[in-house]
Specification:
Elements: E1 7-11, H1 13-16, H2 19-28, H3 33-36, E2 39-43, H4 49-53, H5 64-70, H6 75-96, H7 100-126, H8 138-163, E3 168-171, H9 184-192, E4 201-205, H10 214-218, H11 222-233, E5 238-243, H12 252-255, E6 261-262, E7 265-267, H13 268-276, H14 284-293, E8 297-301, E9 310-313, E10 325-338, H15 348-358, E11 362-368, E12 372-378, H16 381-394, E13 399-411, H17 420-430, E14 435-440, E15 446-452, H18 456-469, E16 478-479, H19 480-484
Parallel strand pairs: 1-2, 1-5, 2-4, 3-4, 5-8, 7-9
Antiparallel strand pairs: 6-16, 8-9, 10-12, 10-13, 11-12, 13-15, 14-15
C-alpha cells in the first residue's frame, strides 16, 4: 500500500453522541483502505459524561468528583457514580443493541466503574488517619474520573469499527492499572509505537495519564492537547478537529443561519481570540504546538462531511483587511479595584493577579488608569467574591466592586479597516446599545466592546450586520444558509 501522509483527527463530545453521523461522516467515509488508514483518531467522552463525572461545565452542578470532595459519607458520590454507570450502559445499548459487543462494552464499563469505586473508598478510609490528607490527592481523583469518559467512548468506537470490517485498535492512554509515570511524549510513543498505521486505525483516549498531569495544567482542555502532541510527535501532515458546527462569522442562532458566512481560512492568532471568548476552535496550548511545528489545522463540521471546513495556519492573513468574526462572552464580571494611593506605586497588579489565581478565576481582558485596575473575569460569582474579600482585607482603603457585563469581540486576521472602530461604535449607539468600555490593541486582531449584560445578542446582530453583511463578500466565504440549500 502506498505510504500516505499521516492525519491526526479529534472528535468532539457533542459529535461523539451521534454515533451514526460519526461513523458514516468521519470514521468510515470510504471503504478504500487509503481512506480508512494512515490516520489516528483521538476521541472525547460522549457529550455530558464528563460533566457528570466532574461538574457541569457551565452551571457548576456537582458531579462525582465535586461530591466526593465535599461529602462526609460516601452516599452522595457513590449514587452519582451509579448514575454515570447507568448512562454509559444506556449508551452501549443504544449503540450496539443486543449483541456480543454490547456485553463486551458493558463488562468494560462495570470493571472500570467498580475499580474507581473501590479506589475512592480506600482513599477516603486512608485519609481518615491524620498522616494523610484528602486534598493532596484530589487532582489525581479528578484525572482518574475524567479518564473514565474517554476510555468508554474510545473502547466503544473501536468495537463498532471492527463490526464494520475496519482493523481498529483501542489505544488506552489513561494509565489504568499502570504503575509507571511516563511523560506525555513517552506515553504517546509507547502507546502508538507498535501500531502499523498503514493497516490499523488507532482509536485513542483523549485523556493521557502522564507525569506532567494534563488536568493540572489544562483542566478540561486536555483532549486537544493530547491530540496536538500526537500530531507533532508523529509529524502529521494535517490535524483535523470534527465539531458539531461550522466555524462561521457569528453564532447562527443569534444572527440567523441565512446571514452568517462560513470561514474558509484563518490563522492561529484568530483561533486564540476565539478561545478567549469561549468559542474554542482549538485549545490555545494545542494551537501553539501545531503552529510551532508548522502543521495546519482543519476544523470540520461532523454533520456536513462534504464541506472542506476551516483551514487554520500560522501565516494566513486575509487578502484585504476585514472583519471575519463577531462573537462574545456573556456573564463576565467587571472586577474593579480602585485605590487613590495607587498612582506611581508598584505592586497592586501583582497582588490582584495573585488573588485571582488563588481563587481560579479566568481573566478575559484588562484595563487600567492612574488609580483603577479593572479585570474582566469569567468564573463563578462565589470565586469572584472570595478574591474581592481577600483584596479588601489586604487593602482596607481600596474599593473593590464586581458587576455583570458582556463582552463583544470583533475579530479578524487583519483588522486595519479604515474607520472600523468608529463604524462599530455608531452601529451600537444607533442601535440603542450602551458602550461601557472599549479595548483595542495595535496588533489589529480584535476590538472588544464592554456592554450591558442584556444587550449581548442585539450587539452581535448589529455589528455583524454592519461589519460583515454590508461589507463585500470575502474570498472563499459563503453563507451557511446558501450552503445548506
Amino acid at each position: 500500500m502506498e505510504n500516505r501522509p499521516l492525519k491526526v483527527e479529534k472528535i468532539g463530545g457533542t459529535s461523539m453522541a451521534d454515533t451514526k453521523a460519526v461513523l458514516n461522516n468521519v470514521l468510515l467515509r470510504s471503504k478504500a483502505p487509503e481512506e480508512l488508514y494512515n490516520r489516528i483518531v483521538v476521541v472525547s467522552a460522549y457529550a455530558g459524561v464528563t460533566d457528570k463525572l466532574l461538574e457541569q461545565k457551565k452551571t457548576g452542578e456537582p458531579g462525582v468528583y465535586a461530591l466526593f470532595a465535599s461529602a462526609e459519607t460516601g452516599a452522595s458520590w457513590e449514587k452519582a457514580l451509579d448514575r454515570v454507570a447507568e448512562e454509559m450502559l444506556t449508551l452501549n445499548q443504544k449503540i450496539f443493541g443486543d449483541c456480543a459487543d454490547r456485553r463486551t462494552a458493558d463488562s468494560f464499563v462495570r470493571e472500570r466503574v467498580e475499580g474507581i469505586r473501590s479506589c475512592l473508598i480506600d482513599l477516603r478510609r486512608l485519609c481518615s488517619y491524620g498522616h494523610f490528607h484528602l486534598d493532596e490527592h484530589m487532582l489525581t481523583v479528578r484525572e482518574m474520573l475524567s479518564a473514565l469518559g474517554e476510555a468508554h467512548s474510545a473502547n466503544n468506537t473501536a468495537l463498532l469499527l471492527r463490526q464494520h470490517g475496519v482493523n481498529a485498535c483501542f489505544i488506552d492512554m489513561t494509565g489504568w492499572r499502570d504503575e509507571t509515570q511516563p511523560t506525555l511524549d513517552e506515553r504517546i510513543q509507547s502507546s502508538l509505537g507498535a501500531v502499523d498505521l498503514s493497516s490499523e486505525l488507532p482509536i485513542v483516549t483523549g485523556y493521557a495519564h502522564c507525569r506532567e498531569g494534563l488536568m493540572r495544567n489544562f483542566d478540561r482542555g486536555y483532549t486537544e492537547v493530547t491530540f496536538s502532541r500526537i500530531a507533532v510527535l508523529l509529524q502529521a501532515s494535517e490535524a483535523i478537529i470534527h465539531k458539531e458546527f461550522h466555524l462561521s462569522s457569528a453564532d447562527p442562532k443569534i444572527v440567523g443561519v441565512e446571514k452568517v458566512q462560513k470561514i474558509g481560512k484563518t490563522n492561529y492568532d484568530v483561533a486564540d481570540q476565539l478561545s478567549n471568548m469561549g468559542m474554542e476552535a482549538v485549545h490555545p496550548r494545542a494551537a501553539k504546538g501545531l503552529r510551532q511545528a508548522g502543521i495546519p489545522l482543519r476544523v470540520k463540521n461532523t454533520f456536513d462531511p462534504t464541506d472542506a471546513g476551516t483551514e487554520i495556519s500560522g501565516d494566513y492573513v486575509s487578502t484585504t483587511p476585514r472583519t471575519e468574526i463577531v462573537t462574545g462572552l456573556r456573564d463576565v464580571f467587571a472586577f474593579e479595584f480602585f485605590e487613590q494611593d495607587m498612582v506611581g506605586v508598584k505592586g497592586y497588579d501583582a497582588a490582584i493577579l495573585e488573588a485571582l489565581k488563588r481563587h481560579n478565576v479566568r481573566i478575559v481582558s484588562k484595563t487600567s488608569n492612574a488609580n483603577t485596575i479593572t479585570h474582566y473575569l469569567a468564573g463563578p460569582l462565589k470565586a469572584v467574591k472570595r478574591a474581592a474579600a481577600q483584596l479588601e482585607e489586604n487593602y482596607p482603603t481600596a474599593v473593590v466592586t464586581a458587576r455583570k457585563v458582556s463582552i463583544i469581540s470583533v475579530i479578524g486576521s487583519d483588522l486595519r479597516v479604515a474607520g472600523l472602530t468608529k463604524t462599530a461604535v455608531v452601529a451600537l449607539t444607533d442601535g440603542g446599545v450602551e458602550i461601557l468600555g472599549l479595548h483595542q490593541l495595535m496588533r489589529n486582531v480584535d476590538v472588544q466592546f464592554v456592554i450591558q449584560e442584556d444587550d449581548f445578542e442585539r450587539a452581535i446582530t448589529l455589528l455583524h450586520a454592519q461589519l460583515i453583511e454590508k461589507a463585500d463578500v470575502r474570498d472563499g466565504a459563503r453563507t451557511i444558509g446558501r450552503q445548506a440549500a
